[in-house]
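Person: I have long wanted to understand how a fold can be written as tokens. Underneath my words sits a plain record pairing an amino acid chain with its backbone structure tokens. Those tokens are not coordinates but codes from a learned vocabulary of shapes. I should like you to check that the lines agree and flag anything odd. The protein I mean follows directly.
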Amino acid sequence: MIGAILTRDDDLAKQMPADLALFFRAMYQANRQRVRDALVQLAEIGAALSAAAIPAVVLKGGSDILSPIHVDPAMRYVGDLDVLVPANRAQDAAAALCALGAAPAAPPAYHGSSFDWRGQRLSKHHLPRLVRPDWTFPVEIHVQAGPGAVAAVLDPDKVFGGCVPSRIQGLSVASHEDRACHLLTHTTRHNGAVGLRAWIDWSTLRRQCDQNVVASRLHHAGFDQTFESCGLMADLLEAEDVSLICAGKAAVSSASLTTFGASGDRSLAALPPFIFRRLRALIFSQLYRDHIGARLAQGEFLHEVLAKIRAHVFCPTVAKKMRRRPK
């Protein structure tokens, strides 16, 4: 996003250190190549699913590549490709991609286990991630748009009912209203903080969708505050004079900015839940026990564990020095 602006505006780029401007521009050029790679990969996926007569809707970042909300699709960084298919065809879709040479990115969970090799609960809204050596992006076959509240707002049948064919055969994209609901319900899922990219995406997408429909759907799911906060932050981003924003809007904006970039709870209070999750995984997941057993045989494992505990709970400065210690 920053690289795209600096590439077009040399005067702005001169206002920052040259090496930093070079970094952002290089990242932008690399992301332009990633967009081209994504289109090639999506074409291959679309052909395979079309041949198997499996309806497919590309979600999130992949949809922004197929049907960009921004003038320049390379402004948005995409980490993986999420493809929604009917639940009763999900295994068929995975098999179609495996026939192309794709394979699960991680060891399969043991039969009957609810945990993966990392000790985390298996996702119910998508199948295990698929990768291929020459693919730039991992692929997730979804049976729901997302977990929990996301699924409550985006019913798969309705997503399929409102989707629009994309420029790639065999793949569709969700309606702008569904994409807006997905953006706003998914953006705070990881740590409760709204990222800058979500604000910028919403400032653009809100002009392309029926905001009344989006507001109504989010209201029924209890996302009124998220809708209001993102709207106010979009107003702030676009304001020519932020001093003209009313006190009420400023208060909401201030609260949002306070959590911008937050990385989760790093206090001592976060330690007991972390230990509980790890112990639960050790008790219930044979795959996780195997993983930990293999790691214990590696000399650096305990050092890495201590460094992470220090980084997240006790002393980030000491942890940083520990990570730099020569092996």
Remarks:
- Residues 260 and 290 are 38 Å apart (CA to CA).
- Residues 260-265, 315-327 have pLDDT under 50 and may be disordered.
- The first helix runs from residue 2 to 8.
